[in-house]
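worker-3 :: picked DUF4976 domain-containing protein
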Amino acid sequence: MGLFEREWFRGKYFSDLHFRSRFSLGEHGFYNKQWMYENPLHAPFLVKFPGVIKSGQVHESMTSHVDIAPTILDFAGAAIPEDMQGFSLKPLLLGQKDQVRKASYYHFYSHGERLPEMIGVRTERYKLIHYPAMKGQARWELFDLERDSEEMKNLAHKPEYKELKENLKKQLRQLIEEVDDDSVNAPALMSLK
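worker-3 :: tokens ->
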């Protein structure tokens, strides 16, 4: 048994910073981690840097796997290339900022017939998911994570959420442009209306 396992089983967490990690175990009828629902969307990010990062921190800020490289470069004192995606988490880890992003972009490219392509944006409170290959009302999902943390009430087709949906679509298009995701082929999303 390695150091990680020994420390974990003793109840000493190996990390100084951790995020929740979950896998779909039947929620929404799925058993995997590809869907953009809250349970599978979270992944742990463990950091230990004795003498630099204060131990015992837990952050709920939105981060992404694309933040790892800029963070390492920043801590190493190296320049972060302008065309590199992601943000350095150094200000977050040193307690200088509460968040590095206000919205997170998600794109799953599909996996056969059972896992469709999905493109989405998650903000602190809302989540918009687009399924380009789906038809009709199944094409869009919109959730208010504050009022519906289990994501059971799709608001995408309710008239009172039309403006919010359009604003989130605009934000999603901006994120697609920012990350230069030229693989997006979703006319219902990319059109202005």
